[in-house]
Amino acid sequence: MEKYTNIREKTYAIERAFLSPYAAKSEDTLGRDVWEEPCEMRTEYQRDRDRIIYCKAFVRLKNKTQVFFSPEGDHYVTRLTHTLDVAQIARSLARALSLNEDLTEAIALGHDLGHTPFGHSGERILSKLSPTGFRHNEQSVRVVETLEKDGKGLNLTKEVRDGILNHKMGLKPCTLEGMCVNVADRIAYINHDLNDAIRAGILQQSDVPEDVVKVLGATSRERINTAIKSVYENSAGKPQVEMDEEVFSASEKLRKFMFDRVYRTKYARGEEEKAERMISAMYEYFNKHPEKLPKTFVDLCERFPTEQVVCDYLSSMTDRYAVYTFNALFVPGGWTFIDELNS
Question: N or C: at which end does the chain have fewer Cβ atoms within 10 angstroms?
Fold first, then answer.
């Protein structure tokens, strides 16, 4: 039995022996912007995954909206459960195609770190307010490069940052592992958002187009299995991560159905007008009074334009912290009345 200098070297050997020739091998990473001494136990991609899991932005995802604002129920998807869903599906794709699961998982866990409070509504609002626009994939990269660890960043590998940046539909990551996350993100949100819409009574299972059900299946399990199987049969042994045309077309039809019947309706965007007034007021306030920002963000104002730092702060907020901060800034506090008759 071959012996290795350390566990990292053993992992390298396993990857060389079993991963696809198109996989991103850990020992071939393009590395970090700032060099660090290698870990004896973990590869660089494993270290990145761990850094993301333990960073503050990842923890905050549990209190950020996916589709429905502050739903009254314990089983609706949040930005964190969406992230875990994407990671699970992406790893399944990577495993089926003999790609690097550690790199895939690191990208998936970090892909939404820069998402705003109030879901895509918050993203649309900040994009209108910011002079340079706002895109959550770019903000996720800014989180790991600059904002985490009090402005020091996480110093992640280039492959992980590239996958985070290019996880949105229509973009092309430099690795197939990044493409696994790109595809998994679409598979995940269409399915769990459909389940949430049915749970909320917005849709009935029978509303899903019959031709979509015929191709993809009637349940989340069936639809996800169909998608993963399609990617495997269409991409195994090839430098691609793609579904076959029939499954892709049905998935796009289901995606359009969700936009028409859920995402763009009053049910999902019913509170967006209130959120816009609230975020706009805080944006204006902190641009006029940057000294009122938390210290980390005050320090960032010395390195970046104030408008960008204000967007950094607002996008980092959870839904409930955004409401708390707005109330603290603009809603008068309670007053203790004195009973003058008995004084």
Answer: N
Interatomic CA distance for residues 178 and 166, integer angstroms:
7
Residue 1 lies in a domain: no
Whole-angstrom Cα distance, residue 267 to residue 242?
Answer: 32
Give me the half-sphere count of Cα atoms (radius 13 Å) on the Cβ side of residue 60: 24
Closest CA relative to residue 119, chosen from 265, 256, 318, 321: 318
pTM of the model: 0.94
Residues 6 or more apart from 126 whose CB is under 8 A from it? 116, 134, 279, 283, 311, 314, 315
Full domain range(s) for residue 49: 7-330
Contact 329, 285 (CB under 8 A): yes
Do 94 and 180 form a contact (C-beta atoms < 8 A)? yes
336 occurs within a structural domain: no
- Measure CA 208 to chain center: 26
How many structural domains comprise the chain? 1
Segment 251-274, tens digit of pLDDT: 999 999 999 998 887 766 667 888
